[in-house]
Design goal:
9-stranded mixed β-sheet; alpha+beta
């Protein structure tokens, strides 16, 4: 029978992952591209646009071992899969957390072991395996971008590139593309996430497909954008994340920019020109705020941060405010929502997801006029607490406590959000 310590050991103990970006990896992905081109040519089919200027990512070349705790990964999955708009699903930010609480192999408390799935997780059917792999791939990308490249804002590419007059969009794009950034004037990372449990060959094919999917985004003000493809493979005995940079090759110097209000223009299958850099940067920051507010259960407040042109459509789906919960620790006061469920083997599980109270309050201010929106879109709101050297290095902090019939473990991310799990018998 599962015991309290089994829950804790599967979630809070240090595990290891290997992050790889190497010349050999680049060469193997290029070979996959050539095989793809030859196969399509033989069949007389058109060759899709693909990025061939592949380079390594310096921070992961040579490869590096990193520590991660499953609770961190669950937190990351919850953050990145939360939509920036109400989606009619009350557990939009926690269903993945509930679904995968049981999925990781218990690790030794005194010696980190490679992050692996439990035997039970490996025995689920194919379609659920694909879903688990995809979401672990997204969570791992969020973990790496937050910890290694220190980005604190994330939003869906498909939403970031909306024309302001378009009041409806898909909930999720067909591929999980995300923008990561800090300040509006900072470089923007465009990240394509992949995941599998199969093999290294599957990783190479996923990276190759990513070179055909990851967008190019070009800014008029000279700000750079970097495309990354991150493919995570959960092997039987370890977890590896493979990272490549499909650099842009097209010369946009002679592109004719128009001065209309539209923020972005599609100039190719996966190519976008940002026509209003300042507006794009401000709206991107505010949509990222909306994504965070929905994570904390503040749906009406989240809609108020969206570009005015699409607010009217989504406000009808926003749920009325629910009672907020608060908790305190050494990093401050947190506000969020708590969800409770009982397992069939007699455990009571409480999930708290929230954010620093002062950040929730700042993000929740209605933005009714253009000047107020412009000010908020330009501000850097991350509180000074989160610039400590310790927090920069770790990225996440966690605490845990346990007794005979109660256990608690939490994850706190450098973007100010928290995920806490409490289990009682």
């Amino acid at each position: 029978m599962v015991q309290i310590n089994d829950w804790l050991n599967a979630l809070r103990n240090d595990c290891t992952i290997e992050v790889i970006s190497s010349a050999d990896l680049i060469s193997e992905v290029r070979r996959k591209q050539l095989t793809r081109v030859r196969g399509l040519t033989t069949q007389g089919k058109p060759i899709p646009p693909m990025k061939s200027n592949l380079v390594t990512v310096t921070i992961f070349d040579p490869s590096r071992m990193m520590k991660i705790r499953p609770i961190y990964l669950l937190h990351a999955i919850g953050r990145i899969t939360t939509p920036p708009v109400p989606n009619l699903v009350a557990l939009s930010s926690t269903w993945a957390l509930i679904r995968y609480l049981w999925a990781f192999e218990t690790s030794n408390l005194f010696r980190p072991r490679p992050l692996t799935l439990s035997n039970i997780a490996r025995e689920i059917d194919f379609h659920q395996k694909v879903l688990l792999s995809d979401e672990v791939g997204m969570g791992m990308a969020y973990f790496l971008m937050t910890n290694c490249l220190h980005t604190t804002n994330v939003l869906d590419v498909s939403i970031a590139l909306q024309a302001p007059g378009w009041n409806m969009f898909k909930q999720y794009s067909t591929s999980p593309d995300y923008l990561f950034f800090n300040d509006p004037k900072d470089p923007v990372y465009i990240v394509e996430c992949k995941g599998n449990q199969s093999s290294y060959d599957t990783v190479l094919n996923q990276l190759r497909r990513g070179t055909e999917q990851v967008p190019s985004i070009v800014f008029r003000d000279g700000r750079s954008s970097t495309s990354l493809i991150i493919a995570t493979c959960m092997f039987d005995d370890k977890t590896c994340a493979y990272v490549i940079d499909p650099a842009d090759e097209q010369d946009y110097d002679n592109f004719e920019f128009s001065d209309d209000f539209q923020k972005a223009e599609k100039v190719g299958p996966n190519e976008w020109i940002i026509k209003n850099d300042e507006q794009f940067a401000m709206d991107s920051r505010l949509i990222s705020h909306a994504k965070t507010l929905i994570y904390t259960g503040k749906e009406e407040e989240a809609v108020g941060q969206l570009p005015i042109e699409i607010q009217e459509f989504w406000i009808r789906y926003a749920k009325k405010p629910i009672q907020s919960e608060e908790l305190q620790n050494e990093l401050g006061d947190f506000v969020g929502v708590k969800e409770v469920f009982n397992t069939i083997d007699g455990f009571r599980v409480e999930l708290f997801r929230g954010m620093l109270k002062q950040m929730v309050e700042m993000f929740s201010i209605p933005l009714n006029d253009r000047s107020e929106r412009e000010k908020r879109g330009k501000e850097r709101i991350l509180p000074p607490t989160f610039y400590s050297e310790r927090f920069k290095e770790v990225g996440y902090l966690s605490e845990s406590e346990d007794s005979t019939n109660r256990a608690m473990v939490q994850s706190i991310c450098r973007d100010g959000t928290i995920f806490q799990l409490t289990i009682t018998t």
